[in-house]
Amino acid sequence: MLNVESIQNGVVIDHIPAGKGMDIYRLLELESKTQSVALLQSVKSQKYGCKDLIKIEGETLPERLDILGYLDSQITLIVIRDGKVAKKYHPVPPQRLVNVIKCKNPRCITSIETNCDHIFELSPSGRYRCLYCNQEMPVGR
Where in the numbering of this chain does the Aspartate carbamoyltransferase regulatory subunit C-terminal domain appear (predicted)? Predict the structure, then answer.
């Protein structure tokens, strides 16, 4: 059995759908961090059957954790302070996504121009809309 130490300070990203942990690892750019990171894949779960899990040790939380609310509403963030759970919550979809998803409209400026940020804003309908061409994208992947 695999044994991973508990963290004293940091964050645990729990209930990641099985097979999506590496995508989140890359999206949060965890490979460029100097913090200790553990990515566990295909972990058995009574509630979800199988899941992925990421543990990030450190005093400062990674940037862009808000995008997890866009990816999956079941993801749970657990903030650990002094070895105890300080906060546990499901992130909500952010109002704005920058370079997380790409516009699929072939006539959008982001498809034509290089180095153009892909910016989407959450609309009242609950879908993300491209800032440039108004193409809509659903929440979640």
Answer: 97-137
